[in-house]
Amino acid sequence: MPVPTNFTASFQHLDCRRWAAEEDVATIDVYPDSSDPEGQLLAACNFDLMRSLRGGRPWLLPESATGANVPRRRNSARPAGQLRVRSLQAPARGSDSVMCFQWRQSRAGAERFRSAMLPHGGTRTRTWREVTELGRDLRTLAGLAGGRAETAEVAVVWDWDNWWALEGPNHPSAGLAFQGRGLDHYRPLWGANLPVDFLHPHHDLGAYPGPRPLSPRSATAPAFAPPPGSWRRTVAAERATRAPPTPRARRRPAVPVTSARRHAGSG
Q: What integer is the mean pLDDT of 88-101?
């Protein structure tokens, strides 16, 4: 029986890379805030991290939410269409699954207001319709399952020992945050539709090209223009992830979903 552990998004207190080396598959639970304009960015960053922990092997998304998630002070409902857009980032960035917690919304107890695939309103709800539509989308991507990702064109060093050292006590300044600085580097790459490999400091960087400038995408550029080099989305992934851009993100792809899957079935 395969042995996984559900990691949580960019968890500081556990070196996920060391754990993943001892597991059969890397998995992560992701619950980005539906009202956070960078929720999709944060999810993509964690998805690239999971793909990187085991050298491009497929990973799993065992938990995500169809709607409101109860731990926050204000738990917003998902806008129409967001479930599809954010969920399909997972297979586009190397996952073999998109799973939701929970199947049926509880009638009582601590999670009665936590969203589910089958909500209190039953099958005549937008949530149910979007869940079933997502299922049909995923069925068209079944051929990607088991595929191994190619090496990305861009690498970012991500190391938990450095994270702990940077944010330890009694430093001259508490103004540096490891994850925040990492996202500062990741944000323009995500906007340029470039997947990222997150590497250990001792990893050989010979497979990655040297530095090159990133030009801002013009407002008239195609929303899904393929990135340069060997990374190309599959037709199925591209069709399944088309969505209109939000007013905030007109200068970048509505769904940066460059497929990390080129060698389907290669394990």
A: 94
- Establish how many alpha carbons lie within 13 A of residue 185's alpha carbon, considering only the half-sphere containing its beta carbon: 14
Q: Per the structure block, which two tokens stand in for 205? A: 């960087």
- Report the distance separating Cα 31 and Cα 23, nearest Å: 23
Is there a contact between 193 and 237 (Cβ–Cβ < 8 Å)?
Answer: no
Please give the pLDDT value at position 210: 73
Query: Can you list the pairs that 235-241 forms with residues at least 24 positions away whose Cβ atoms lie under 8 Å?
Result: 236/140, 236/141, 236/143, 236/144, 237/88, 237/91, 237/92, 237/141, 237/144, 237/261, 239/140, 240/88, 240/137, 240/140, 240/141, 241/84, 241/85, 241/88, 241/89, 241/92
Around Cβ 121, how many Cβ atoms within 10 Å? 11
The predicted-structure confidence for 145-169, as pLDDT tens digits, reads as follows: 998 888 899 999 999 999 999 998 8
Q: Where are the alpha helices (DSSP H) in 37-177?
A: 39-53, 82-87, 89-92, 126-140, 160-166
* Average pLDDT rounded to a whole number, residues 73-90: 91
The two tokens of residue 5 are 């552990």
Question: What does the domain layout of the chain look like in residue ranges?
Answer: 6-144, 154-249
Q: Which two tokens stand for residue 262?
A: 């080129």
Confidence of residue 214 (pLDDT cuts 50, 70, 90): low
Write out the two tokens for 52.
Answer: 């990187």
Listed range (71-75, 99-103, 155-159, 249-253) with the worst mean pLDDT: 249-253
| Residue closest to 96 by CA, chosen among 63, 58, 62 | 58
